[in-house]
Amino acid sequence: MSPFPYRLVATDLDGTLLRADESVSDRTRDALAAVTAAGAAHIVVTGRAVPWTRHILDDLGYEGIAVCGQGAQVYHAGEHRLLTSLTLDRQLAGLALSKIEAEVGPLALAASRDGLDGEVLMGPDYRVQEGPLPYVPYEDPAELWSAPLTKLYIQHPKLTDDELTRIARETVGGLVDVVLAGPGIVEILPLGLSKATGLSLAARRLGVKAAETIAFGDMPNDIPMFGWAAHGVAMGNAHQELRSVADEVTASNEEDGIALVLERLLSA
Question: What pTM value is reported for the model?
Fold first, then answer.
């Protein structure tokens, strides 16, 4: 077996490492174990905040550093503590929201609160995806702004995700960042925050450079991470915007796309 050519393997979760049922296949687990045995580190880089990520990391037996909340949170899984946490300026977020709604009309809202146990609040018209992730419904809009937030989620009753993301960026690009993170998941983030921000912080703690990193993802919010890493691999199910900037495209998350690339690199 040849030496593995990278010291860090960065993987997104949804649509990338995880299958539709939120499981990780045995083949992918084995490939990641072989990579770590060869001396590389595996780091999860996800848009999910820590409370929505922790159970997956525990199931994987993951005890290292993870990047959560689109880069806002660097989390030590083994010690169950936040190493860094960046919050969204609520005054700026409120201003950005009002500007977007002036352009497209009323939006359905949700928000992720800061902290290890930060709740996800969901408004009455927000379309909740099926699954086990916990959330707290709210009726009074004041509840949305009553505690520090890592992000806002926005949905529009008619616009597609791509349309909403584009219009929101054009409208408030100088105030906040807007990313498309998954089907029905358009997020408002602190200006300048991205997965690359959190990944660079985590890599520095691990003593690893961008030139030693391979990254896997499936959505436009992974573009900054691909720009930072030496090699970006889009999943077969990836959004076209990410595929267009990827160094290569592998099979889908349902077809062990990560494992196929890692196995090839291990045996090259």
Answer: 0.95
